């Protein structure tokens, strides 16, 4: 069995995504022109949702792999499995996506082992082919195949870098925290929470993002605001909702937590 967690999303309803710039248009053209796409930005800024939205719009199956330091090329390409006294070949998510013409989304690609990056190379140039060394097979990518990867360039949080020779194989788009009105709209649409509450959550996020809190590796993301709003909308008092959905996930440091809770208490 593969050690990696792959999520295969079937074609169907289009998940909600609120565009912020020209990202939808750029992605559609990149898909048409077979260009791999790199999404850069901190966690919780809508990168995965964007890819889910685009895959559904393009009516392509999406294979998502959350990469970590043990994700290897074998995990992505496939392996022989012993089933009773038979040996059978099992395609990994990359091979399936290449065969089927699906979208492969490698989330946090820089975290994966170097052999994953090597496997990407022949897929991201004019060859668009995958070499499956265990089967000595060269697989041409089906027309709809598209490679999308995400990467968090915040070196402070201990993330690995991507080499220029890899980065230059992708077109890139930066994701960041949206403007306040857009973020409030996202939080409202995602949760159905009261508009006044969503506005306050977004104000809280703006306060936290502009504060200097050395104990924080990353600041509050839209995802955490959505979680806080969802809890509040289902009846948890807003102050408690903010503590469990914002303070606790962000820090284990007591002083930083106290500072965050003070900022919450100012608004809720
Ligand atoms: P990332 O992949 O960047 O870590 P996600 O795509 O998982 O972030 O986003 C986290 C959550 O934030 C989503 O589940 C969604 O609720 C919300 N979100 C953030 N940005 C958007 C957006 N532009 N449109 C819709 N939802 C968004």
Task: Please give a structural write-up.
The N and C termini lie far apart (48 Å). The protein has two domains: 168 residues, P-loop containing nucleotide triphosphate hydrolases (Rossmann fold, 3-Layer(aba) Sandwich); 88 residues. The strands form three sheets. A six-stranded mixed beta sheet has the order 1-3-6-9-2-10. A two-stranded antiparallel ribbon has the order 4-5. Strands 7-8 form a two-stranded antiparallel sheet. The mean pLDDT is 92. By secondary structure, the chain is an alpha/beta fold. The longest helix has 16 residues. Helices cover 42% and strands 18% of the residues. The structure holds adenosine-5'-diphosphate. Adenosine-5'-diphosphate binds next to helix 2, helix 7 and helix 9. Adenosine-5'-diphosphate (ADP) binds next to helix 2, helix 7 and helix 9. GO terms for molecular function: ATP binding; ATP hydrolysis activity. This is ATPase associated with various cellular activities AAA_5. Belongs to the CbbQ/NirQ/NorQ/GpvN family. Keywords: ATP-binding, Nucleotide-binding.
Quick take:
The protein contains eleven helices and ten strands.
Radius of gyration: 21 Å
The helix fraction, in percent, is 40-55%
CATH superfamily of the largest domain: P-loop containing nucleotide triphosphate hydrolases
Number of strands: 10
| N-end to C-end Cα span | 48 Å
Here the CATH topology of the largest domain equals: Rossmann fold
Let me know the average pLDDT.
92
- In quaternary terms, these chains amount to single chain
Low-confidence stretches: none
Describe the strand arrangement of the main beta sheet, using strand numbers: 1-3-6-9-2-10
GO molecular function: ATP binding; ATP hydrolysis activity
InterPro entries: ATPase_dyneun-rel_AAA (IPR011704), CbbQ/NirQ/NorQ/GpvN (IPR050764), CbbQ_C (IPR013615), P-loop_NTPase (IPR027417)
Family: Belongs to the CbbQ/NirQ/NorQ/GpvN family.
Pfam family, one: AAA_5
